[in-house]
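Inputs:
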Amino acid sequence: MQEELELIHKAAEGDAYAFEELMTAYQKQVYNLTLRMTGNPEDAMDLSQEAFLKAWRGLTSYRFDSAFSTWLYRLTSNVCIDFLRRQKKQKTVPLQYVNDEEERELELPDPNPGTEEQVLQQMERARLAAAMGKLEPEYREALTLRVIQGLSYTEIAVILNIKEGTVKSRIARAREKMRCMMQKNGNKPRRPSSKEAEGRSDA
Amino acid sequence: MMNCEEALILISGHIDGQNTAEEEASLRAHLETCASCCDMLRAYEELDSGIAALEAEPPRELIPRVMERITEQPTEQKHKRRFFFGGGTAIAAVAAVLLLLISTGKLPDFQKSKTATARTTQSDAADEESAPKAAAEIPMSDSALDTPYSAEENGAANTPSDAAESPMLMTAEAPQPDTLTLEVTDNPQAPAETAIAALSALTAEPTGEDGVVQYRTDAATLRIIIKTYGDAYSMTVPEGLDSAEDDTICIIRIVEP
């Protein structure tokens, strides 16, 4: 924590290499948020860069009143929201299209084609990714921050600037929507049999 | 008694470990009597592990690419030493290119008298005008010069301890409506930013527009660029350039075709 504070101070004074270390620590978080929000790796890459550049330029405005990660997440979240807004204005590309790209990405030939189990897992991942992409941005974002980034309701509330109660209900609703979508698309039964549940417990 | 709809929110909260003790107790009571909600709990847990598995590793080029842009662009911050680290080599490269062009007679005839004067960093007011990074000898007419440019490549010479603001303040503001703007359509085969030597000494400003970068320079430079490269690139010359003073601030926009 102390080290991080030092890095932030140095970076705020223009030390690019200190900033590089900060990026190394947070690139996974930033990237995964942008990936889920955009639905495809290319846009995620662009937005991640944009977020980090904004962070670099805006470091002097970081007031140390929240955790650095919170500040960075919020910045990244805003970059994503702006992007989605622009996309909406520019073209009527349905989110479906965006997620097809990722599905294709995930289906790219594996060097080791693997077992049927692995193929099924890949397909499942693709379906999940597509379903997430179909969620409205505010649900998608809350769910991502909770389940993928592992943030608490409190942290999420600060990042998204909403009440904790809203975070809780948003996530619950997002989960329910996801469950319905996954049910519809696949041939998964509504009630997973205990046998099936065991077989899929690997992540 | 809780209904299933309310239970769903608590199930979600339970998975996240964010229920109060009271809520947990209510939930437990409900689950004891409701098989369908038990299924929901299992379904949500499975969903969660699936979503968590979507986590991806960021591409390896992410950080390097950001670093590229950070170290070539100036910041508005006080400490300039790191910035000039990258600058020294750029200045050397540009100087070399220019010398080559001069010696092979490719550049238009212009005064070379202004070299070698170490460029003192004046205070900010003049800096708007003297935006170019000042390694290249940029052709100027006699009258216009306030701050002579230096062909020095020594990075140290550019970091006097009393340097106030960097003249390359990246303001990234939109050009004023009446600023003369030259719009150049880029050619991917021969990128303008590389081909037009004068640009190498300037600092690109982001515009917020996709595929567009802009540079700030003066009318004299603009005229020379138009004269020299007007055939190589499609350009939109601003009205009023002819009558503008040499030191009038202008904008060059490079637009992807």
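Chain A touches chain B through 53 residues (CB under 8 Å). Flag for discussion at group meeting.
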